């Protein structure tokens, strides 16, 4: 495990955010990666260490899509609920929800990552604005170790620096 984690949502800005983060002086080898939700299964085909979702029943589809695209399959799965027959690390749920992306941040913090950067999760489109309250409520717990590349989380937490 490295000390830096990229939490990847599946918004259209994912690739742009990743290029901005990793395209500079930052080396992909310095980071672990966590994919959030079914739609991220085949968006980033580099190595992922973790997958997180509020919808754990979708993990078999996630694995299928990832395998078909040629991505690694030896990642750990994380959710707020268990599913019979699946190996999932279950994390406690706290209201209000901050979306599966916040679950990814909470997983990163719980696993001991020192620096977390969120990409591809602006949370400013109509269907996702409702999750902003969950980020505000968790701000004291996440603000020292978490930054974001776009949208509401970036406004709340700031962008990452080279440090």
Task: Give an account of the 3D structure.
The protein is α/β, with parallel strands linked by helices and 163 residues long. Helix content is 31%, strand content 17%. The protein has five helices and seven strands. Helix 2 links the parallel strand 3 and strand 4. The radius of gyration is 14 Å and the shape is globular.
User: Helix coverage percent of residues?
Assistant: 25-40%
Calculate the terminal CA-CA distance, rounded to whole Å.
18 Å
| Secondary-structure class | alpha/beta
* Oligomer state of the chains in this structure: single chain
Number of helices: 5
Reading the helices and strands in chain order gives EHEEHEEHEHEH
Cα Rg: 14 Å
Mean pLDDT reading: 94
Proportion of residues in extended strands: 15-25%
Q: Please state how the strands of the largest beta sheet are arranged side by side.
A: 5-4-3-2-1-6-7
Low-confidence stretches: none
Major beta-sheet overview: 7 strands, parallel
Query: Can you count the beta strands?
Result: 7
Q: What form results from the Cα inertia axes? A: globular
